[in-house]
Write a structure and sequence with these properties.
It is built from five helices and no strands. It has helices spanning 19-27, 31-46, 64-72, 77-93, 95-108.
């Protein structure tokens, strides 16, 4: 899954943030760089919106509620999608947020593997346990059955 999904709704000059990237950052799977990006995204979402909505219209989501929901259940891809959509909607109506989000997206590009490339290496003898090779794993657990089973 691409981290920044270019094929999905490119409204207002802002590409939707992939749910996979949001989950990776929320769970800590994206490492120190992901933690820094998560903190920057949190700060961006907490800024007050600069654009209002028309009288009688439903207010646009700021993304804060969606961010809190994803923080509570960091592996939940549906919550990550809701956050992505809230950010897309806010960016379409708040020029200052849109500008900040575009800058944030440029920083997030550093986490994106080049062309989906995966390099897996195992060396140094026999492996005594599960080995999982690939890319973009979320919510994977292994159960230790004990020695000799």
């Amino acid at each position: 899954m691409a981290f920044v999904n270019r094929a999905w709704r490119q409204g207002a000059g802002v590409e939707a943030i992939s749910a996979g990237l949001l989950v990776a950052m929320a769970t800590g799977a994206a490492g120190a760089a992901g933690q820094q990006l998560w903190a920057a995204l949190t700060d961006l979402l907490r800024r007050q919106p600069r654009a209002g909505t028309a009288a009688g219209a439903d207010p646009l989501p700021t993304g804060e509620a969606e961010l809190a929901a994803l923080s509570e259940a960091s592996h939940d891809i549906e919550r990550a999608r809701a956050l992505s959509e809230a950010m897309r909607q806010r960016a379409a109506h708040d020029a200052q947020f849109r500008s900040g989000l575009i800058q944030w997206q440029r920083s997030a590009e550093a986490l994106r593997p080049a062309d989906g490339a995966v390099t897996n290496t195992i060396s140094g003898g026999n492996q005594k346990g599960p080995v999982l090779q690939g890319r973009d794993f979320f919510g994977v657990t292994f159960t230790d059955r004990g020695e000799g089973e």
